[in-house]
Design a protein that fits this description.
The protein is α+β, with helices and mostly antiparallel strands. The chain contains four helices and 19 strands. It has a seven-stranded mixed sheet. α3 links the parallel β16 (238-243) and β17 (265-268). The longest helix is centred in the first third of the chain and has 25 residues, at 5-29. The relative contact order is 0.12.
Length: 309
């Protein structure tokens, strides 16, 4: 009888240890966060015309105006938190909670909450719901950060307490939202006459990078940036200036009239903005640090010049 006790005890110990490992693994892959930070969209002004008082009005800074396609501008609350998941997947994750139409009637609306992913530490960004870093919250909400996939397992009624899970495999369906935190290069077309080849421009080792989106209509901005970069000398970042709207003929003409620019000019292609959350507002820059980490997808021209001082 006694000879069976030792094997049984060892088996019981293995069961207990295996159960403990399962719990630890579960705790590591499912985490709860409280969204106690903010995110602001300063691209859309905070003032609007009030029909009742026939005058301009504004709303509290705890709210934001968000353009919901087909529904116009919606008064919303945004709750965010800087978090780190998986293998150093650091982002600011947030929930956009729509409330009511900014301009009144109809007051009652039913719109889905939106999950938003932005660079870690970034508290101001123009928000567009058609970008890949934003998507509706559903019963099965999956999102991607770099190469890793995560799930939004629960969201409470305050929209501030969320539970996130790590997925071991790539899901079959497309993620609700996705973001890359490291710069992988940008697809552009050089301005050489007769050249229609798309090339991929990468960062330079150990050097910060600016992806500068501009248009000939704002050529003064480009000239200001060129002068500032020239003044910085060896300390200047790599600048990749990309036009998203101008024809190649117009760009070639512009280039011939400005032969002393501090950086080359490129034309955008259909794949230029893949993974970059490009915004239509120009001029603005995407800022990448010397290690290749994306610090912001949108820095307005004036703010950029101050940043380069």
């Amino acid at each position: 009888m006694m000879k069976f006790l030792v094997p049984l005890s060892l088996f019981s110990l293995l069961v207990i240890l295996s159960g403990g490992c399962s719990r630890d693994l579960h705790e590591e892959t499912t985490r709860v966060f409280f969204l106690n930070q903010s995110l602001k969209d300063q691209y859309i002004g905070r003032y609007f015309y009030n029909r009742e008082t026939t005058s301009r009005d504004s709303f509290s800074h705890e709210f934001q105006q968000i353009e919901f396609p087909g529904n116009g501008r919606i008064l919303s609350k945004i709750f965010t938190k800087d978090i780190v998941l998986g293998r150093n997947d650091s982002v600011r994750i947030g929930i956009i909670h729509p409330l009511e139409k900014v301009y009144g009637y109809p007051k009652t609306i039913t719109l889905a909450d939106q999950l938003i992913l932005t660079p870690y530490g970034q508290d101001t960004i123009p928000i567009s719901l058609d970008q890949e870093n934003v998507g509706p919250v559903t019963r099965s909400t999956v999102f991607r950060i770099n190469r890793n996939y995560y799930s939004l397992n629960s969201l409470d009624s305050t929209r501030q307490r969320i539970e996130l899970g790590t997925l071991e495999r790539r899901p079959r369906s497309q993620p609700t939202a996705a973001i890359d935190t490291r710069f992988k290069g940008i697809a552009v077309r050089p301005l050489a006459a007769g050249d229609t080849t798309e090339v991929r421009v990468q960062k330079e080792p150990g050097k910060a990078t600016l992806i500068y989106f501009w248009s000939i209509a704002r050529e003064g901005d480009l000239e200001e940036l060129s002068e500032r970069i020239a003044e910085m000398g060896e300390a200047a970042p790599l600048v990749i200036a990309v036009s998203r709207t101008d024809s190649k003929a117009n760009l070639l003409d512009f280039s011939s009239r400005h032969p002393n620019l501090s950086f080359p000019l490129y034309q955008a292609t259909a794949s230029t903005c893949n993974g970059l959350q490009c915004h239509p507002g120009i001029s603005h820059a995407m800022v990448i640090n010397s290690e290749g980490r994306i610090l912001t997808h949108y820095r307005q021209h004036r703010d950029l010049l101050r940043h380069l001082q």
